[in-house]
């Protein structure tokens, strides 16, 4: 099938999509956007978090066809050219990035949190990021990064 | 030799002792860093692996006829398509690339499919007909050595005895225990992946997420029947490792498919396949007897421990040696009896995971120290300090600890930290969280301590070295440096450390880290907390050669100064096979934890309220990265304490998913206050001490000690499950 979807503000088209393909597969393998990650492909780890019409979703749980005529924003669409989004900048500065495989999903999820709650409390940050697994950091520096980004936005 | 901070001052910013940003950080937050699973090649096809559903079975036939007929399938391969040696392994070559006539664990690779789409490959795999004669699996590690032999030499992979001092001395106070450690998974987030690209001359390039390029290369070349120079590896982005990428997974498979089809082949495991596709932490059963005098001074420790290596040896021999040589913990004990056994079973293969044998022993000996404290009426910290090792102490192997061993100091540091406030009334800070299972009723608090010891770098006489090239030339009128190694960056931050070392040594701020590949000599494994030490040492040594040629010049015109060198840490020795005596290890690392927990005794739910750590790192070359390692290592220890286990039944894995294999989320992790000591090791570059593993050892027993303190339960097994707490 053919899927038409707006990704990071651009109208994109994917052809020969098998009906069983996820939005994640189409983004990664057909549209050249591998930033969203494939750590579990069952909605447990949050590494593939993208905005679908402004709501964060696990792209692995969205069938590609469900994205037809909708707007997707991925981690690749957060920076403004060379200028990183404050959340991205804070993740690098705070040491919240080790292997970085969880980072794209966490950055999108944290970006959404700060859009909704500009100055979140620690319990609020923890709730918001509870669906994003990280195996390297123990999360402390991710919390630091979100606090830092909140202070700058 | 004592290093002073002045010696670590860089002429330029971003040198050692500071925390510059990672060179790959911006790419990673932008989603533009190329992990192995992100790779793409024109005309590439997808590889998939058919695996055994049985833990132990004879293969009576394999029929690929129908699979080959599926449109879009390029190849279906079995063991007869392996042109070289169909056996590989880190220490023993005992594991088939593709099974021949027997499978020894559930998930063992039997056949490969190359196809135009992952779904095509899956459908074709379903058409491969494998006939199995199912056999009774060997699953009990304690009896495995006397059970049906799974390999020609029997099921005992290695027995490490240690005999030190009197073997029959008696003591005033004796405590005994039997402890179990469940099978933990590394659960790195980036699944096993790679892209193999065939060349027209019959050679192959593999872009791969691994921990050790050269040992992968050597094993792949042997399996492919190619000279080593015809197998070229380049490290792709690696999504974590923690030991789980030391063994081969899809490396040979992708190369076989690529050479067979003449097409680039990408293989990406999903999470379920990842659970079958790499080795895990050895589950263990450990029997301990500690004897002490009335003052709490240890008189003897005797232990017998079993580590389940599963179907293939992997690094079991070294894991067993670690468990044995570190088996009494960071304590002075004159009389030691250890018998550590690593065995084959039909359980999933086990090998390296952060802590590597020291974790299993650590849970048991620290549980014993708490039991001893209770028997003596002493505090857990006091009994540990009473026996704490110091510089100059003698290990059970007879090795003298010849650099800082601040065990008592680390314990005091965590003991003196402020305790968290009392049990919260905010449900988000109670066991069960927003599940709203308690408002504080049935919740009890406990505090626990633990300290651990880990060897750093490779041991037992292994020739452990790394190779580094540093090249300096003029770029835009300034000196610029490039550093090249084959040492794998898996997330830990070696790329940053190498830049920092070059900046400090050469006073050159602009340092490029070149891709890690096999065009340069061996970088050794990214394991045993060794890369900053060994590859860092190699980069430092290469810089010294460059510096001599620079001779103070800041303008070298068109000259290119290029130096490559190998660097080794001081040699170690094998241990005596009967007494376990010998200078087996290069360096020891120590960390201590204090855990505070709240336990809902009605539901058996645990919330770790705080998990504070003190660790000696010799020198913190990058303080931010050091703390990140300690926090991350502590988190993996928390996982083993209260949630993480690959559960098996009759050799079959019951929970190969992140739905059923739980790793800590941000809700499970408490705030962690970290104290970093910098007591330089005179034998190590800059005085550093490996950082990554020690915190994973003491975190688990500290948490379990806290749960015991809260509940009064004995808790001899990790992970602690709700039913262990409720008795239901």
Automatic annotation (TrEMBL), chain A:
Keyword ATP-binding tagged: no
Keyword set includes Cytoplasm: no
PROSITE patterns: 2FE2S_FER_1 (PS00197), 2FE2S_FER_2 (PS51085)
SUPFAM superfamilies: 2Fe-2S ferredoxin-like, CO dehydrogenase ISP C-domain like
InterPro entries for this protein: 2Fe-2S-bd, 2Fe-2S-bd_dom_sf, 2Fe-2S_ferredoxin-like_sf, 2Fe-2S_ferredoxin-type, 2Fe2S_fd_BS, Beta-grasp_dom_sf, Diverse_Oxidoreductases
Keywords: 2Fe-2S, Iron, Iron-sulfur, Metal-binding, Oxidoreductase
Domain annotation 2Fe-2S ferredoxin-type: ranges: 1-78
An MF annotation (GO) of this entry: metal ion binding
Pfam short name (any one): Fer2_2
Protein name: Carbon-monoxide dehydrogenase small subunit
From TrEMBL, chain B:
Superkingdom as given in the UniProt entry: Bacteria
InterPro entries: Ald_Oxase/Xan_DH_a/b, Ald_Oxase/Xan_DH_a/b_sf, Ald_Oxase/xanthine_DH-like, AldOxase/xan_DH_MoCoBD1, AldOxase/xan_DH_MoCoBD2, AldOxase/xan_DH_Mopterin-bd_sf
Region (Disordered): 1-24
Pfam families in UniProt: Ald_Xan_dh_C (PF01315), MoCoBD_1 (PF02738), MoCoBD_2 (PF20256)
GO MF terms, alphabetically ordered: iron ion binding; oxidoreductase activity
Every Aldehyde oxidase/xanthine dehydrogenase a/b hammerhead domain range: 30-136
Matching PANTHER family: XANTHINE DEHYDROGENASE, XANTHINE DEHYDROGENASE SUBUNIT D-RELATED
Name the record gives this protein: Xanthine dehydrogenase, molybdenum binding subunit apoprotein
Source organism per UniProt: Lentzea albida
